[in-house]
Amino acid sequence: MMVSDRRSAYSRITQVAVHLPDGRQSARAIEDRLREHSPGVRVPVGLLSRLYGLEERVVAADGDVPSGLACHAVSRVLAQACLEPGEVDLLMFAAVSADVQEPANAHIVAARTGLSCPVFDVSNACNSVLNALEVADAFIRAGRYRRILIACGETLSRLSRWSLTPTTLRTGLASLTGGDMGAALLVEASPRPGIIAQTFMANSAGWPAATLFNPHHAPSGPSGLHIDSEKLLASFLGIDTRAAQWLKEQHTDPNELGLICLHQPSVPFVRTFCERLSIQPDTVVPTFHRTGNMGAATLPLQLAHAADQGRLRPGTQVVLFGMASGASGGVMLISW
């Protein structure tokens, strides 16, 4: 749908919604199960809390799939916006998780929610939603579409590696911190700037630090999710300083904004990131400790929590920090 309207030369996020399944798994329950399945590994009480700051994670029911969780959030966004499915011009599915590799998972979400617009998937690990926002902004500014939905469904708890050894514990433990949820964002053409500015960067030499090989196309790769936390953190060095420099070039002090949202793979990661960029921790909406790592849904989750807490109002200035294995980074300034 080609659109040309100079009065609507900008894009703006107008709605955000999340769907959190009812299931919860405490850090102690995770440790107990790990001891049961990995008898050769010593698992001290409180290990996940000390290393990652995890108290509990959100866990979907056995029958839930990424597209289903995303559909719940999409339906909620449409209801909030008082929109019919036919009023959406484009749907993107953006997540780490996926029901299928073919076709695009966005087709499944569209079919289940009654959308008839063009669809495709955006995939860049935990930066998938932020990159989808980048794409939506470009399309709307170019006049290609006026109303774009971004859907996300994560079932990261299913990547948990329960059978570990003393040798594989170091790269397997982080897999036990993933959580499950659905999220959706509505991006629309606007006469005033909503997505104001953005920059993206990568350190692709760091890709081996966190991997999930496809068993169909890379059968020689290690099975399951492998995360070397030290190497992963090191792969972001330089990305964080480039993000800080870009903010200076935008004459923006994050601490003077109304809200800061950043990817949260652990509580210590958030603390370290804030220290390196001189960000006051209380400006960030904490989520990891009670949900686990929500992958690409982390940023929408923080926006939704901030809205519920009254911290996200029309005109609120927000900075979104995306970090993903690879390593990828992104910074986006938005006005709500």
From TrEMBL:
Keyword tags: Acyltransferase, Cytoplasm, Transferase
Residue runs in coiled coils: none
EC numbers for this chain: 2.3.1.180
The protein's enzyme class: transferase
A Pfam family annotated for this UniProt entry: ACP_syn_III_C
InterPro entries in alphabetical order: ACP_syn_III_C, ACP_syn_III_N, Thiolase-like
Keyword check for Cytoplasm: yes
GO aspect biological process, one term: secondary metabolite biosynthetic process
GO molecular function, one term: beta-ketoacyl-acyl-carrier-protein synthase III activity
Membrane spanning stretches: none
Location of the Beta-ketoacyl-[acyl-carrier-protein] synthase III C-terminal domain: 247-336
Keyword flag Ribosomal protein: no
Signal peptide start and end residues: none
Residue span(s) of domain Beta-ketoacyl-[acyl-carrier-protein] synthase III N-terminal: 120-201
Protein name stated in the entry: 3-oxoacyl-[acyl-carrier-protein] synthase-3
Species per Swiss-Prot/TrEMBL record: Streptomyces luteogriseus
